[in-house]
Specification:
- The chain has two helices and two strands; from the N terminus they run E-H-E-H.
- With 74 residues, it is an alpha+beta fold.
- The protein has a domain of 47 residues.
- The chain is elongated.
- Bound molecules: zinc ion.
Length: 74
């Protein structure tokens, strides 16, 4: 099952929502949260995105970075 089409009706795909990634989903988070990470390029258009372990780690890292920069800037 390596089909990676953008599906509008079925948000729950078992494949990571990050582009260029076809790992299995481990975590599901809201798209708004995921979009805060500039290191992730998301595919699909569902309200929720599924991330694999690796991409979730990237997401966590990049949002942490953003937060640190925010607090440093002010
Ligand atoms: Zn992934």
């Amino acid at each position: 099952m390596k089909h990676r089409e953008i599906s509008l009706s079925n948000e729950e795909s078992d494949v990571c929502s990050s582009q260029n990634c076809s790992n299995l989903v481990k975590r599901s988070i809201s798209r708004k949260r995921a979009e805060k990470s500039s290191d992730l390029s998301l595919s699909g258009s569902g309200r929720k995105v599924g991330l694999c372990t690796d991409c979730y780690r990237i997401f966590k890292k990049s949002t942490k970075k953003d937060r640190a920069m925010e607090s440093l800037g002010r």
